[in-house]
Amino acid sequence: MFSIKTPQQTVKALGLVCVVMLFFCGCDLQHSTRLGGPELVWSDEFNGDELDPTRWTAYVGDGCPGLCGFGNNELQYYSDRAENVKVENGKLIITALHDSLESRAYSSAKLLTKGQRSWQYGRIEVKAKLPQGRGTWPAIWMLPDKNKYGGWPRSGEIDIMEHVGYNPGMIYGTVHTESFNHMKGTQKGDSTVIAGFAENFHEYAIEWRENKIDWFIDGEPYHSFDNTGKNSEDWPFDQSFHLILNLAVGGSWGGSRGIDDSIWPQSMEVDYVRIYSF
After folding, report:
1. Is 71 contained in some domain?
2. What is d(CA 89, CA 14) in angstroms, rounded to the nearest whole number?
3. Domain membership flag for residue 4
4. What is the CA radius of gyration of the chain?
5. What pLDDT score was predicted for residue 25?
6. The pLDDT of residue 36
7. Enzyme catalytic residues
8. 132 φ, ψ to 5°?
9. What is d(CA 226, CA 215) in angstroms, rounded to the nearest whole number?
10. 99-139 per-position pLDDT tens digit
């Protein structure tokens, strides 16, 4: 024997089924695979009280010996001190200070996933709030693990986000290769202006595929770089790259209009990093 359900009862029953399914599959809608989209394969939500050493390595030094100032005449010494890098209230906080650490007038932090995790193709998302003021140069970027085609720039660089403090709100997305790099003035990039870059968190992302790389801010595309199909001098992006988060001080670009010594300390805060595969 069966009963006929009203439309309202049917809707309630379907809703109950959905709730039960979500409960038993342990799904988190925020982190679950997007409908028809990429699948989450790695993330850091910074929900603990310290940096996860299985995900990140803090670089210590100023690039010396070798490329002192990392080849860009940067003025900071990178440290792993709590003053420069910490996890607090669900955020990663990288802070640059005017405190004369080691041989440098400024200190800051640079975090890498190298040696922990790297990726070839996918969507890379970083939600961040940026520092402000002349002399700040925050970056979210990627370098290859093994330099398949030789040293920089032959094996490539992907700049997901760069911002220089003397140009407030202008966000840059760029690639560097043997054919296209800033040393030759041939780099391939674009930029867009966003409001509230230092007051609000924004999501900076790329979607990196075999045939192109697309750049996004808060889900809106603003730049694309296509694989020419010629050779590795144009497209070395067929190998694994690791992620880098850093806040530089000064440098040939970030300091090209001077440094305002009244602004320090300045911080880049990161809400999350999420990597998706296609």
Report:
1. yes
2. 38
3. no
4. 22
5. 37
6. 60
7. 157, 162
8. -140, 160
9. 12
10. 999 989 999 999 999 999 999 999 999 999 999 999 999 99
pLDDT digits (tens, 9 = 90+) for 21-61: 333 333 333 443 445 678 999 999 999 999 999 999 999 99
Q: What are the C-alpha distances in Å from 83 to residues 79, 90, 105, 107, 267?
A: 9, 17, 15, 9, 11
Predicted structure pTM score:
0.87
Nearest of 178, 171, 157, 265 to residue 218 by alpha carbon? 171
Contacts of 272 (CB under 8 A, 6+ apart): 43, 44, 45, 46, 125, 126, 127
23-37, 78-92, 124-138, 152-166: which has the minimum mean pLDDT? Answer: 23-37
Number of domains the chain contains: 1
CATH code, domain carrying 170 = 2.60.120.200
C-alpha–C-alpha distance, residues 65 and 120, integer Å: 30
Residue 208 pairs in a beta bridge with 122, 213
Q: What's the mean pLDDT when you consider all of the chain?
A: 90
**Does some domain include residue 267?**
yes
Please write the tens of the pLDDT for every residue from 197-208: 999 999 999 999
Quote the tokens at residue 67.
Answer: 């490329």
Q: Where on the phi/psi map is residue 46: left (φ > 0), alpha (ψ -120 to 50), or beta?
A: left
Separation in Å, CA 84 to CA 43, 223, 235, 264: 22, 32, 35, 12
CA distances from 177 to 174, 194, 254 (A): 10, 27, 21
Contact indicator for 145, 114 with CB cutoff of 8 Å:
yes
